[in-house]
Amino acid sequence: MNASHSPEPKDRPAGRPARLTVGVLGAGRVGPALAAALQLAGHRPVAVSAVSDASVRRAAALLPDVPIVEPAQVMEAAELVLLTVPDDTLPGLVEGLAETGAVRPGQLLVHTSGRYGARVLDSALRAGALPLALHPVMTFTGTPVDVQRLAGCSFGVTAPEELRLAAQALVIEMGGEPEWIAEENRPLYHAALALGANHLVTLVTQAMELLRAAGVEAPDRMLGPLLGAALDNSLRSGDAALTGPVARGDAGTVAAHVAELREHAPQTVAGYLAMARATADRALAHGMLKPELAEDLLEVLADGGRP
Known about the structure:
Order of helices and strands: EHEHHEHEHEHEHEHHHHHH
Strand content: 5-15%
Strand order of the largest sheet: 2-1-3-4-5-6-7
């Protein structure tokens, strides 16, 4: 359905929001992509706020016909406002919008923070807004490819009971799959995602740097198939996918690893040891690491790999 056709209420499935005017407060990597996805579903982006040169470029690339205006004008123009600002900025922004009277009764306020649920919008709720927390479980580049990646993407959703259908409909319209997260579980949910995704980037980039230091010309090509298989195996099999010297209890190999890292990349030693200890604990708990081998391995790890 394109933006030129606005269905009458009788044409819409139950719970599906009407065609809405959409505004974006904070043109980081997330906001313009979500607004572009909503535009594809028939909603109409009408205003976006952007400050930095990079955010202006993102808005122009993803929302080329949408004017860049001040935040107050975004609030005035839009029936649905996407609050796509950093986590630490969100509470103050919401308080400020409520205190200045920028929030209108019946206005949908949607934040995309993983850390917070709907309660961070309480001051706006008291002003009559309709609060939704819709967090896309995806890494964003700030380019049009992000809109395509929303297809099948999970969204961590927290909303008042009376807004669950509307929240679900918006996520589905953006191509996503809603996953309901209780308000009190949002910090744990967000920590899990950061542990899996953010730390993965650190591990992969460190591995590529070490391979370059070892003389590998194309570490990305070398790691791609290995990491793809490891990710697939771990998602399918959990701890049964563990492999490598730690899971096997090869204490001598692990000690050699740490010695090389101390010489060539000392900044990676702490991370290697921490992950090796966590891997050893999981392998031991699941019967993959033999207790008699675990003793020598854990001694190496406790000593930091020093002979």
